[in-house]
Request: fold
Amino acid sequence: DIELDTETGMWVIAIRRQNDWIYNPNHETRIRADDVLFARGHDEGVLLFTELVTNEKCIPKEIKHEKILKDLEKAVDIIVDMKDMAEMSVGLAYSALLFDNEDIAEEVKAIEYKMDCMKYELQHWVLETAKHVSDVNQLRGLLHLANSSESISDAAYTIADIVLRDIELHPVVTIAVRQSDEVITRLTVESCSPIVGKTFGQLKLETETGVYVMAIKRGEKWLYSPKKNTQVQTDDVLIARGSRTGEEALIEMCACPLDVNK
Reply:
C-alpha cells in the first residue's frame, strides 16, 4: 500500500518486532506500531524514509570522528568500495544468468580480480598500521570485512562462470530470478527518451522509482555505479535492480513520449 521503494528509494530488508524478526518482508507484510525497520537505499532516500516512518522532521546529525589511526580514510575508502562492489557483483552475476550475457559475466570476473587486489591493499595497510596501534585487535574487524566482501565476489564469479562455460541452464532458474522480490532489468535508452542528456543527479532514479542502476554499458565500455554527474546517452544499456513496481516506474520514465498528432 505504501510502496516505500518508489516513494522513498529505500528497501526494507528486515523488521524487528519485539523479540521476533521478519526478513525480506514482502508486499503483503503489514507494519505495526513499535516495529523497528532496517532499510537500505540511496542517501537521499534516508531523510524521506525517516520522516515517513516517524512522522517527524528529520535533521541529520553531523558526527566528527576522532582520528585514531594514520591514514584511516584510506582504509575506509577501500572497505566502502569493497562493500559496494561485492553487492554489485552479485547483481551483475544474476543479470548474466538472466540475460545469458557473456559480456556481463566477463565484468563479474574482472570485478573478482579487482576485489583480490583491494583485499591485498587493505591487508598491507593493516600490517603497516599495526606498529602504531597498542591493541592490534582493533584492526581484526577490517580484515574480516575485507575477507567477507572478497568471498561474496568469489561466489558471484562462480555464478557468472556458468555463463562463461556455456553451461545450459534449466528454465526454472530464469523463472526463479524473475519471480524473486527484487527483480533485475535491462533497458536500452532510445534517442527519443526524455532522460537522454540528463544526469543521474537530476533524474534521482533511486528516490523516484526505487530502482538502483548497477551498471551502464556504453558501446564496448562499462560504467559501474554511475555517479550523480553521469549523463545518460542514447543507446545506453541500463542494468538495474529493484521491485516490480520500481521496474514499471523506470520503464515509464524512460519511455518515448507519445505523439498525439499521430
Q: What stands out?
A: The radius of gyration is 21 Å. Residues 181-254 form a domain with the Alpha-Beta Plaits fold (CATH 3.30.70.1450). The first strand starts at residue 10 and ends at 17.
